[in-house]
Amino acid sequence: MKILLVEDDPQLQIQIQNLLSEQRYLVDTAADGNRALDKIFAESYDLILLDIMLPQVDGLTILQEMRRAHIITPVLLLTAKGSVEDRVKGLDYGADDYLAKPFSIAELLARIRALLRRPGRECDSLLKVGDITLDTVSRKVTKARENLDLTPKEFSLLEFLLYNKNQPASRITLAEHVWGDDFDPFTMSNTIDVHIKNLRRKIDPECANSSLIKTVRGIGFVIEE
Predict the structure, then answer these.
(1) In this predicted structure, which of 16-20, 79-83, 127-131 has the lowest mean pLDDT?
(2) Mean pLDDT of all residues in 179-200
(3) What's the order of all strands across the beta sheet hosting 140-143?
(4) What is the DSSP string of 177-208?
(5) In sequence order, what are the beta bridge partners of 49?
(6) Lowest-pLDDT range, 9-18, 134-143, 186-195, 204-213?
């Protein structure tokens, strides 16, 4: 599952991003309204966590622009504790839920899971290729119905490659989506290779060079149907 986190508080943004990454979600971030709109109209997300108070363009305006463009991605508004009027406006403008700051980690994760489980999403929750099935809601991966024990980073790599089946993904693209803004382009290539190698071993212990994840010379990796 791919989530866009729109939050201008650097410390809170990093905290939430790390939390979601640990839960095996793919996380993109934006710290201002203009950047958020650029990403919303350029990318496809399963959920948007949207702070109301933002520089340049506020969250309610972003929400209005999304719904006017018929973008139906679920939106969880992050609001100030006392801003009842903003919450009401947000729901009127098309928000799916809201969460008042400060909030607990457990409640944030529960709200996210609830939105991702809403009717109409079940058919999108399973990503499959061969005998591999990845459930984006339960965060489980199985091979011939046997559970695979993947790390959060391995899960995110596999999920991204499955979302983009038949389309080669560069190492930089993988790093940006899995590690976010924390990646170092000068050292990340080797890190990606190590994680892919470990992932291949778990997918097929008897063949470390699993044919599921193919290397595309000079580009990166791909999963083909």
Answers:
(1) 79-83
(2) 78
(3) 126-129, 132-135, 140-143, 146-148
(4) HHHGGG--TTTHHHHHHHHHHHHHHHH-TT-S
(5) 5, 76
(6) 204-213
Contact 164, 129 (CB under 8 A): no
Which amino acid is residue 144, in one-letter code? A
Polymer length of the chain: 225
Q: How far apart are CA 17 and CA 6, in angstroms?
A: 10
Long-range pairs of 188-197 with CB within 8 A, sequence gap ≥ 24: 192/157, 192/220, 195/153, 195/154, 195/157, 196/157, 196/221
- What is the rounded end-to-end Cα distance, in angstroms, of the chain? 20
**Residue 211 in this model has a pLDDT that exceeds 80:** no
Show the domains of the chain with their CATH numbers. Answer: 2-116 (3.40.50.2300), 125-223 (1.10.10.10)
Token pair of 140 as six digits: 């489980």
The single residue listed with the structure tokens 């199985």 is 142
48 closest CA partner among 84, 123, 37, 181: 37
Average confidence score pLDDT of the chain: 85
pLDDT beyond 50 at 122 = no
Contact 100, 81 (CB under 8 A): yes
pLDDT beyond 60 at 142:
yes
